[in-house]
């Protein structure tokens, strides 16, 4: 696992592929329960994660939207069957267990998100923490801003952030029109691949949004999931597992 720097009020980690029981394409610490892996292996992997972070991690059902899921309240996705965000919605009609940001004010209660190229973002403040799943659709829909607003509105403004491993702008090729449209609302997302085609830089866009929001401490991993095989990558391997970003309030 990779440690995330989140200041005095919280700590966080980003898991790698290592340390689990899954086999084959999902080897070995796959935490995604709806990607084709054996359910028993995924459940065991979640148990191993819980041992390493001090307790079962609460996940939501990710849908590439901007809904903030609050813990406690609703169902806790701690059975190893949280989704990877295969469904699509803007978050406005979500059921109680959906959300692409998971917030808690409880101490020693891990919350997390699952990714395999999307950006895992961990936010921490004096009174709460949030784990955010920021893929292209969720980022453009405003999931980072929604997470920051949820913390601020409840008096839990974020002071620290960690941006985890994700696909980089040199590898995330997209159609020209998609890049143009995305850059209208997020100029920092504009990128070009290493082979010269249109691309999106999701981590840069997240970092810019956090900076604009006044987050003074941002720990950013300089790691591309597509080129670093320590991590699951959907772009590199269409059938693959999911790793997690987890944050815990001290």
> Which band does the percent of strand residues land in?
15-25%
Number of strands: 12
Number of separate domains: 1
Q: Uncertain regions: pLDDT < 50 for 5+ in a row?
A: 74-95
The secondary-structure element order is EEHEEEEEHHEHEEHEE
Mean pLDDT: 91
The biggest sheet, with number of strands, parallel, antiparallel or mixed sense and barrel status, is: 6 strands, mixed
Cα(first) to Cα(last) distance is 19 Å
CATH architecture descriptor name: 4-Layer Sandwich
CATH superfamily: CNF1/YfiH-like putative cysteine hydrolases
Percent of residues in helices comes to 10-25%
CATH class group: Alpha Beta
* Total count of helical runs of at least 4 residues: 5
Strand order in the largest sheet? 3-4-7-6-8-11
Structural class: alpha+beta
Structural commentary:
It is globular and about 45 Å long. The protein starts with a strand and ends with a strand. The strands form 3 sheets. A 6-stranded mixed beta sheet has the order 3-4-7-6-8-11. A 4-stranded antiparallel beta sheet has the order 1-2-12-5, with no helix packed on it. A two-stranded antiparallel ribbon has the order 9-10. A hairpin with a 5-residue loop joins strand 1 and strand 2 (10-14). Residues 74-95 have low confidence and may be disordered. The chain is of the alpha+beta class. 21% of the residues lie in helices and 22% in strands. It has a single domain, classed as CNF1/YfiH-like putative cysteine hydrolases (4-Layer Sandwich), CATH 3.60.140. The protein contains 5 helices and 12 strands.
């Amino acid at each position: 696992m990779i440690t995330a720097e989140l200041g005095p009020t919280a700590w966080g980690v980003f898991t790698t592929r290592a340390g689990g029981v899954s086999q084959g394409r999902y080897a070995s610490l796959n935490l995604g329960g709806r990607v084709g892996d054996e359910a028993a292996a995924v459940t065991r992997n979640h148990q191993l994660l819980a041992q390493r972070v001090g307790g079962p991690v609460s996940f939501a059902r990710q849908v590439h939207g901007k809904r903030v899921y609050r813990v406690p309240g609703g169902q806790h996705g701690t059975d190893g069957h949280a989704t990877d965000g295969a469904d699509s919605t803007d978050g406005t009609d979500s059921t109680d267990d959906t959300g692409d940001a998971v917030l808690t004010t409880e101490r020693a209660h891990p919350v997390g998100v699952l990714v395999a190229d999307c950006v895992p973002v961990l936010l921490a403040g004096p009174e709460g923490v949030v784990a955010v799943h920021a893929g292209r659709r969720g980022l453009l829909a405003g999931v980072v801003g929604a997470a920051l607003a949820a913390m601020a509105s409840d008096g839990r403004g974020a002071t620290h952030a960690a941006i985890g491993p994700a696909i980089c702008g040199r590898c995330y090729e997209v159609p020209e029109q998609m890049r143009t449209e995305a850059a209208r609302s997020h100029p920092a997302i504009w990128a070009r691949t290493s082979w010269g085609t249109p691309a999106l830089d999701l981590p840069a866009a997240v970092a810019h949004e956090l900076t604009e929001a006044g987050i003074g401490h941002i720990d950013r991993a300089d790691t591309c999931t597509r080129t670093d095989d320590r991590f699951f990558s959907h772009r590199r391997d269409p059938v693959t597992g999911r790793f997690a970003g987890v944050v815990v309030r001290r």
